[in-house]
Write a structure and sequence with these properties.
InterPro entries: GIY-YIG_endonuc, GIY-YIG_endonuc_sf, UPF0213_domain. It comes from Salegentibacter chungangensis. This is GIY-YIG nuclease family protein. Pfam families: GIY-YIG. The chain is α+β, with helices and mostly antiparallel strands and 130 residues long. The chain has one domain. Strands 2-1-3 form a three-stranded antiparallel beta sheet, with helices on both faces. Strand 1 and strand 2 form a beta hairpin. The radius of gyration is 16 Å and the shape is globular. The protein starts with a strand and ends with a helix.
Length: 130
């Protein structure tokens, strides 16, 4: 059993996305600044906004990386409101391709092209418009 979690700080108005097998201990570590020079060290008021159980660490890491790569507060707030979006993302998961190599050998010079091709089809704009 593994978890994806999202923390929120009112002080910084920022979200933190992470994964763990022990959600209570990890939240305590963040609040006590156990991790030196970490993003969560910037605030003391982190609150748990979401915890999503996954079957294994690989799935939790996949979701964590997916959300972080999107770099969108809108996406994060939609995920918090509707947990089924995370299941949808996992169900549409495909193997990662080399960083700048697309299907059929297409080479992308700009990593943003890769993001559009491989991430946006899995998370359509309809989710962002809900």
């Amino acid at each position: 059993m593994h978890f994806l979690y999202i923390l929120y700080s009112k002080k910084t108005d920022r979200y933190y996305i992470g994964e763990t097998s022990d959600i209570r201990n990890r939240l305590k570590q963040h609040q006590q600044h156990h991790f030196k020079y970490n993003f969560t060290e910037k605030a003391e008021d982190w609150e748990l906004k979401l915890q999503f159980e996954t079957t294994n660490r690989e799935e939790a890491l996949y979701l964590e990386k997916f959300i972080k790569r999107m770099k969108s507060k809108i996406l994060i707030s939609k995920v918090i409101q509707n947990l089924s979006l995370l299941s949808d993302i996992l169900n549409k998961k495909q193997p990662w391709f080399p960083r700048c190599l697309g299907a059929g050998g297409t080479t992308f010079k700009n990593p943003l092209q890769l993001k559009r091709v491989f991430l946006f089809p899995y998370f359509s704009h309809s989710y962002l418009m809900m």
